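Consortium newsletter contribution from the modelling node. Members have asked for a concrete example of what our holo predictions look like. Here is one, prepared for the iron/sulfur cluster complex that several groups have been discussing at recent meetings.
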Amino acid sequence: MNLSAPHPGPAAPGCADHPPHLVPERTRCLEGLHRDIIECDRCPRLRTYCAEVGQTRVRRYRDQEYWARPVPGFGDPEARLFILGLAPGAHGANRTGRMFTGDDSGRWLYGALYEFGFADRPESVSRDDGLTLTDAYISNVVRCAPPGNKPSPGEIAACRPFLEAELAMLTRVRVVLALGRIAFDTYVRLRRAQGFDPGRIDFRHGAEYRIPGLPVLLSSYHPSRQNTNTGVLTAPMWREIFARARALLDEPS
Ligand code: SF4
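And here is the predicted structure:
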């Protein structure tokens, strides 16, 4: 099963395995968490911006109705690979309603996920295009598109309980891939707050960290156009990250 679009019904029952003390509000399972995310309005600046972008649109998408709400995580509830990006793109996920769907960053991400056997197709076009992820789950530091792709520290903190809840529910995760410094720092800060000791670690493309009691942490430059158009992140560099993630998952546990 893949989780992507809003869950229209009541929160699914029978999620007693998920630790309630880590889960915000009424959320007790991924479906309920996704619903809480979609309804969230903790960050007025971001909610206003997403709605405005959805109203004004850009010429190439002017005939489309934008999602313009918080974007929940997407992927396999049994995932062993957890990918953490920064935020929905204003005309990408904020338009389509699915993580990394409908923009250049998504083309890089889903292309790699397909190549390494985590996705059943290389392109992610819309949230109802039928794409399925296997063994991978995609999330973001904030679930609302920020102006200039820059969420404030307060907005990152406001959204962190959703990340914490996801990580608590995705109990099979063995590799966390942080895309960019903000994703890396947010993840490390969360784990420190939970009492883990990552030691002295810093963001670096291609770095691999083993923190006692936690999944292996990989870090990569974010596949934003700013990085991919300038050669900061090249296709071979990107491919290497996913080859390493795949190799880690293929290691006997
Ligand atoms: S960024 Fe996160 S906390 Fe802020 S409004 Fe969106 S979903 Fe809510």
